[in-house]
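ESCALATION

Customer reports they have been waiting on this structure for their group meeting. Please prioritize. Original submission:
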Amino acid sequence: MFAGSVGLVHARLHVLGFGALPVLEEGRLLGVLSERDYTRKVALEGRSSKSTRVRDILAEAVTVGRADPVEEAMRRMTERRVRHLVVTRSEEHTSEL
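Update from on-call: job pushed to the front of the queue and completed.
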């Protein structure tokens, strides 16, 4: 998913039935956009979803490698107090999500 307008990404979340999506730009992981981010940082603040850029409301992505044990994933989520975790195939956190 690209780092364009929030409206486009929010619509994609809805169509896919996902609660969050990793946001990439030129194959690099920029962060995560969730329904909660949209609600709190756009809708509740009265911002326009057409003019608000995704990168302006992104949450930092917490990542784990796909070979890491589930316990490591849970530890990272608990320590960072996040609801969404990006599982990557590589240490560079590129488009191989």
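Sent to customer with the following note: The beta strands are 20-25, 28-34, 63-65, 86-88.
Escalation resolved.
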